[in-house]
Amino acid sequence: RQSAGQVIAGTVVQGCLEKGAKIRFYPSGLTTTAAHLERAHSHNEVSEASKGDHIGILAKSFPPKHCNFPRLQVATPADDDTLGKTMSFVAQVTVFCMHKPLLVDRKIYGQVLTHRFKCKIAKILWKITKRNLKITREARKKGERVSERKFRQENPRLLENGDVACVEVTPFHKISVTTFKECEGLGRIIFFTRLNRTWDPSDFFMVGNIKSVVNELGSKRLKDILLRDTEMISSQGHRVGHWTI
């Protein structure tokens, strides 16, 4: 029944979800309470869902304008600030199966666990060519200590087949991702040259892990963080910590 709430289906990627917990969805920012939990296959009510469980959530307290709940949302505890609407992110990638060089500002498609989206390579921070990677591997086989940082090219103009690189990506749609360290499902990413309804391996050319994320921040939340940061500096006389936004 619409008056009882909305049923949202999904899979627990990590952690656990308890009945009655307050959760927030990203990138929409909607907040609700998990009033009822039910397994998707057996339709049995449960008090807690753990990693890998396919569940249905009876969500209440949504505004009337959100009677049609948006798809492809990520749910987190309401007091968790690690997620948000992603403005850009940095990923370390490996390039392969690419027939021509990839230039900066090239429009491509990315995919994480919950989203498939259009994006562009805003900047290439560094890269190591296929030839230099081969040199380091051969040196390590001989027992020599060789650092890959020595072979990094800073701010290159393009990427070629076999390169390992660190790139800054700007999405064109509302998405929510996080680092691979925080969540493997939302931190592992693949890239396509075009978007097809069917899986075509020839369109798949780059894979990597997300290293850092820049999220959109509301004015009130930003004001609170800046105020807290200022109080910490003034009370201690120097910066003693930082906040991840």
Explain how this protein is built.
It is built from 3 helices and 16 strands. The strands form 4 sheets. The chain has a 6-stranded antiparallel beta barrel. It has a 5-stranded antiparallel beta sheet with strand order 1-6-4-3-7, with no helix packed on it. A two-stranded antiparallel ribbon has the order 2-5. The two termini are 38 Å apart. Residues 218-245 have low confidence and may be disordered. The chain has helices spanning 130-141, 184-187, 219-236, and strands at residues 6-11, 16-18, 22-26, 31-39, 48-50, 54-60, 74-77, 86-95, 102-103, 107-111, 116-128, 153-154, 158-159, 164-171, 188-192, 204-215. The longest helix is centred in the C-terminal third of the chain and has 18 residues, at 219-236. By secondary structure, the protein is mainly beta.
Q: Distance between termini?
A: 38 Å
**Binned strand content:** 35-45%
**What is the string of SSEs from the N terminus onward?**
EEEEEEEEEEEHEEEHEEH
Continuous helix count: 3
Q: Quickly give the structural class.
A: mainly beta
Give the helix proportion (percent range). 10-25%
Principal-axes shape call: elongated
In the predicted model, the low-confidence regions spanning at least 5 consecutive residues are 218-245
